[in-house]
Prior knowledge:
Layout: H1 2-18, E1 20-28, E2 42-50, E3 53-61, E4 67-74, E5 84-90, E6 96-103, H2 106-113, E7 117-123, E8 131-134
Antiparallel strand pairs: 1-2, 1-8, 2-3, 3-6, 4-5, 4-7, 5-6, 7-8
Amino acid sequence: MTRIFAIILLAGALAAQTGETYKARLSAVPADARTRPALAGIGTATATLSSSKLTVSGSFEGLLSPATTAELRAAVAAGVRGPVIQDLTISKATSGMLSGSVDLNPDQIEKLHKGGLYIQIQTEKEPEGVLWGWLLR
């Protein structure tokens, strides 16, 4: 019985080390027809949750002006923008990389599991955001 318990603990520890992996496809999402021509670019991101620490990395290209900021955000509802959880490091260029990590609280972890966390990239010409991508399993 003790041996079975030890195997279960070891399996749980290994699962925690490998973490849960999430992916996001970053794409331009216009607020309305008027903003559509000003938005361009694509990207991808991967996030790994290990215990409560979420580590994010990704790339982007094709922006019409240099990126200024990237943020990890929590949606208010499915597909609805929400508050910033953490700023991410981003290349200040029209293509490049983004990265960062944050310790999530239990509410944020639950939102992540339900597809409620996303990445948003802002540019010089589009300070309200040009690329968005929801972290999904």
